[in-house]
């Protein structure tokens, strides 16, 4: 397969959790950095797009990690587009260690977005022309489609949206959603298990100044949970997810 883009990283100290292993938010950050560099590689970096009031917004996706890299470990993220429509593209990712072993996979559905009008727009023809595509999928897990409702959560955490939580699109960045989700997972899970799979869907935007509630409920399966991020004042669902965890 030649229709891909590779980016190498060396994991840094501040990207580690308390056990010296990269956190899930670190991996999601590196996946998005790779996607951003892939955009720049075809002369459409995110700030150039922002000058046209355009950006990419993540609608949902799946991340599955067999293990998380450790401090100073070198990894390679390979990304490509597997399919697209007039306004959306499906981005695939495979994460390799230095020995070329696959340690993680991810898939995300991204929409081309008018920042001012807050709605999808048609992808530029030049972007489609310059980006190469491959129909191969990185992971067979189907992205979450159903809205998960949590009537009686087992765990909750509340947060105020700060300026630093927002991004170029003028809303809360999706990495912050993952951070909020993890904060409502009980410590006996996060201390003894690692996040193996997360399957999430974004439903509505969150902005600076709002307060949100992260809710988690134990699923029927062992070490699996369902999650929801809602606004504190109206209980509007902004994001939902399912996670599964494996013993460290």
How would you describe this structure to a colleague?
The protein has 248 residues and is α+β, with helices and mostly antiparallel strands. It has two domains: 5-130, Hotdog Thioesterase (Thiol Ester Dehydrase, Chain A, Roll), CATH 3.10.129.10; 155-247, Roll (Thiol Ester Dehydrase, Chain A), CATH 3.10.129. The protein is 18% helix and 39% strand. The chain contains five helices and eleven strands. The protein has helices spanning 24-41, 46-51, 125-130, 174-183, 187-190, and strands at residues 5-10, 54-65, 74-84, 88-97, 102-114, 119-120, 155-160, 193-202, 211-218, 224-231, 237-247. Strands 1, 2, 3, 4, 5, 6, 7, 8, 9, 10 and 11 form an eleven-stranded antiparallel beta sheet that branches. β9 (211-218) and β10 (224-231) form a beta hairpin. The radius of gyration is 18 Å and the shape is globular. The protein starts with a strand and ends with a strand.
Give a topology summary.
Blueprint lengths: L4 E6 L13 H18 L4 H6 L2 E12 L8 E11 L3 E10 L4 E13 L4 E2 L4 H6 L24 E6 L13 H10 L3 H4 L2 E10 L8 E8 L5 E8 L5 E11 L1
Antiparallel strand pairs: 1-3, 2-5, 2-8, 3-4, 4-5, 5-6, 7-9, 8-11, 9-10, 10-11
Provide a compact summary of the structure.
This protein has helices at residues 24-41, 46-51, 125-130, 174-183, 187-190; strands spanning 5-10, 54-65, 74-84, 88-97, 102-114, 119-120, 155-160, 193-202, 211-218, 224-231, 237-247. With 248 residues, it is α+β, with helices and mostly antiparallel strands. It has two domains: 5-130, Thiol Ester Dehydrase, Chain A (Roll); 155-247, Roll (Thiol Ester Dehydrase, Chain A), CATH 3.10.129.
């Amino acid at each position: 397969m030649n229709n891909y883009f590779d980016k190498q990283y060396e994991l840094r100290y501040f990207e580690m959790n308390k056990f010296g292993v990269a956190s899930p938010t670190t991996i999601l950050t590196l996946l998005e950095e790779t996607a951003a560099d892939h955009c720049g590689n075809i002369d459409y970096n995110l700030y150039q797009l922002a000058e046209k009031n355009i950006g990419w917004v993540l609608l949902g996706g799946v991340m599955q990690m067999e293990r998380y890299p450790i401090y100073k470990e070198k990894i390679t993220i390979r990304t490509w587009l597997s399919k697209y429509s007039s306004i959306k593209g499906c981005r695939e990712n495979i994460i390799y260690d230095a020995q070329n072993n696959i340690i993680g996979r991810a898939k995300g559905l991204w929409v081309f977005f008018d920042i001012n009008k807050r709605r999808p727009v048609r992808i530029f023809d030049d972007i489609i022309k310059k980006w190469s595509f491959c129909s191969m999928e990185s992971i067979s897990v189907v992205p979450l489609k159903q809205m998960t409702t949590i009537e009686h959560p087992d765990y909750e955490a509340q947060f105020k949206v700060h300026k630093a939580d927002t991004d170029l699109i003028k809303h809360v960045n999706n990495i912050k959603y993952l951070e909020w989700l993890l904060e409502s997972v009980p410590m006996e899970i996060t201390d003894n298990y690692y996040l193996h799979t997360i399957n999430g869907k974004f439903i509505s935007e969150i902005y600076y100044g709002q307060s949100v509630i992260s809710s988690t409920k134990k699923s029927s399966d062992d070490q699996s949970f369902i999650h929801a991020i809602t606004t504190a004042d109206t209980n509007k669902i902004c994001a939902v997810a399912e996670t599964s965890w494996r013993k460290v």
